[in-house]
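Reviewers of the previous submission asked for a worked example of the structure-prediction workflow described in the proposal, so we include one complete record here. The input consisted solely of the amino acid sequence. No template or homolog information was supplied to the procedure at any stage.
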Amino acid sequence: MGVGYDHLDLDACTRAGVLVTITREAVKRPLASAMLALMLALAHRLFERDRLARRADWATRFAIEGVGLSGRTLGLLGAGNIGAELIRLVQPFGMRVLVHDPGLSPDTLAQLGAASGSLDEVVRQADFLMLACSLNERTKGLINAARLAQMKPTAFLVNLARGELVEEAALVEALACSRVAGAGIDVFEHEPPARDNPLLGLPNVILGQHNLGMTDELDRLGQMAAVDAVIEVARGNLPASAVNPEAWSQTLQRFAR
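From that input alone, the workflow returned the following structure tokens.
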């Protein structure tokens, strides 16, 4: 019921003949729309305006100015299913989309309406830096103190992928010192986060509980996709959603018995 499987010992599953499948299409729109929701909330400074409204502080209601999206740069790290869907969703806003994804050619990105850039180029130029890449040894700690220092002080970071993609202590420092304007965070290095985690007390952060993509759409499509994979196996077919097809022969033998 998802696409991230870094929490599974995939090698052990393969050795035991356990086929692992994911639900790519089910999470595509819900996660991309959740990323868009966070970007819009940050752009319109909803977290601050909500607090002012609750305090009935009307005297300063025009002191807060949001950020228009037209002409701004959306920097995207990873343009797989979810990232590509996000690119499609932001097209009406007139944003420039700059992507770093070593697995995609510039021509493929151009067809999506995005330009290709190096990791440093995307980090430096982004007004909204969005993380949509998977967690592995290469991407762990991808956004560290050095890369946060490269970001515009007016830029926002959005992470709905995995908390370990970001060095959390460095992010806290950057947010507290206004080296980064704000962040939308749905995932943490350690989940659940400790009660004294500094991110919980920062005023320029919108937080989720690794649940912002949870919609009725995701639930319905995810269950259907998971059941479809089971049915395919029962029919003797390797599901297209398998991430360790090496386990297929053992899985097939088990069903044959």
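Residues 24-43 form the longest helix (20 residues). We consider this example representative of the routine output the project will generate in years two and three.
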